[in-house]
Amino acid sequence: MKISKKHLCLLKGILISVIIPAYDHPDTLLIFIFGVNPATLNKLLMKRSIYRTVTGLIFFLSTTTCLKAQTSPGTAPTLGPANPWTARQLMEPGELATALNSPNTGKPVIFNIGAVEDIKGAKHIGAVSKTETLESFKKALYGLPRDTKIVIYCGCCPFAKCPNIRPAFSLLAGLGFTNIKVLDLPVNLKTNWRDKGYPMEPTR
After folding, report:
1. pTM
2. Domain 87-196 - what CATH class?
């Protein structure tokens, strides 16, 4: 049976608060477990009531510390919607801009699936958070081979808040497309694309 870290913390607390007080030489056991300085410990254990206070405090601190460690910033889940794509499915803006500016490089099929301006070569779909627009996107994909390299982007706001990028990606994946790329615009289109001088379609 696998014991979780939380259960280990509780067992440790029971050891401290129940088993140690019943031991003939609790000071020796505490020194062994926690490396407490003997001289300091002897002063603390002069009275039984003080000893009980100390063990109770150690129990509280040990369980609190263990539980806190399990929810530390390094292990806490990321806030916001989960991303259905992998890191390998993200495309850096500079990579796409280079491909668009190179006459000898094959161009992916690019879809603007947000309420933002069109980058060079993008097919404007609009905000696919709306059911009718998502359906229009589905129709635009008709006839494309499933191994077509497709780049989708929105850039209306940071990924965590974007209402368009996940529905578009999930639609592509659900239809069986195998070469999907999400343009990595962590802030927005202006900051991560336009302000860098990357190519845009002429403003209409």
Report:
1. 0.61
2. alpha beta
